[in-house]
Structure of FeMo cofactor biosynthesis protein NifB:
Amino acid sequence: MKLPLEKHPCFNDNSRHQFGRIHLPVAPKCNIQCNFCNRKFDCLNENRPGVTSKVLSPEQAVHYLGNALEISPNIAVVGIAGPGDPFANPDETMKTLRLVREKYPEMLLCVATNGLNVLPYIDELAELQVSHVTITINAVSPKVGAEVYAWVRHQKRVLRDEQAAETLLENQLAALKKLKEKGITAKVNTIIIPGINDHHVLEVAKTVSELGADILNTLPYYQNEGTVFENIPEPHPELVKHIQEEAAKFLPQMKHCARCRADAVGVIGEENSRQMMVKLEEAAKMSVNLDENRKYVAVASMEGVLINQHLGEADRFLIYDMKADGSSCKLIGSRPAPPPGGGNKRWDAVGEVLFDCKALLVSSAGDTPKNALGAKGMQVLVMEGVIDEAVTGFFKGKDLRHLMRTTKMRGTGCSGGAGVGCG
Ligand SMILES: C[S@@+](CC[C@H](N)C(=O)[O-])C[C@H]1O[C@@H](n2cnc3c(N)ncnc32)[C@H](O)[C@@H]1O
Ligand code: SF4
Ligand code: SF4
């Protein structure tokens, strides 16, 4: 299907008064720390990047999107821009994009990232027809970058100084190259920070234009309390104008950036409406797993009274629904579990057997099945206790922390089981 690319209000000056965009705030964590960014304040009236009033799960986000489109049918783009980094939260980001693409085949999809970890996802972004990607590149020299970034966490290592900036830059440039190989429109954001990189922005413009970037957004840094740069004043508008004019010699400039919040919605430049923010709040309060096709709760239990079986050992799952009067849960059946072993294939098979369950309660499970089943939309909760209390409590949204197991396994290894391996 050909997407209406010309409607993107951020990339097309003619569209920006006519069409809106919505940011779905599903990415709270970040994998780097920019010395100008502060995501801590959460105020509805604050219009600056990195701020959101709520963080949503992918399912909540799609629910919210449905409501938002009813209020503002002119929304042409769904973007993910934080409040942290989309690819520091790749599972949530990719799931949201998949769900939106499935439900709204004509919607334009857009992501904004620091570029550290987007490379492994570019093939799937292209498959999902994500048409616009922004990478923020503030420096193309590790020396300048070392002034901008406090740290970078890459492949479980925290890097600092020039090593951090160099690793970030390598990944950003590789990602930019691949985005263009895949035919995705690539915007680069460069934040103009007086005394830090203002002398270097044209170098950035030259480098990214050589790699095929489509458009450059050189935007003034916003002074933020509680950051390393809190005492650096914002750049003078004349300086910004001059830099943009010079950078235009290398590639087209975006000049109408409104330094949007991570939950920005509507036409660029207009504040989020109260009505929309009520919908955002409502979505954030809803059950995290809103998949309407997943109605039941599955349990691994030896005798049907207690949650006392490891996921890896379960030979059948008990399936529960709520009683019609909502008083407590009721057992509606039992399904055979796929045979143990078989690595990841077993988790796919468990996912198929429990296709209509929103949660699986077990006494122990490893991270691999938890992630594999979680990606399919089913939470795996490790807990112990009486089934009736746990399942009824789950359906009613009660706090079940007192039943949750804080350690993944009992003692060391799989001590509580019959030796057939952990889930
Ligand atoms: C909040 S970030 C979220 C996406 C992603 N983490 C990133 O940095 O590209 C969105 C944009 O806001 C910019 N930004 C964050 N804090 C800023 C500030 N104090 N002044 C200007 N731009 C800022 C980022 O550099 C980025 O271009
Ligand atoms: S504001 Fe940035 S992330 Fe949001 S839709 Fe526009 S280009 Fe995409
Ligand atoms: S990468 Fe984005 S979210 Fe992370 S610290 Fe920098 S500006 Fe903030």
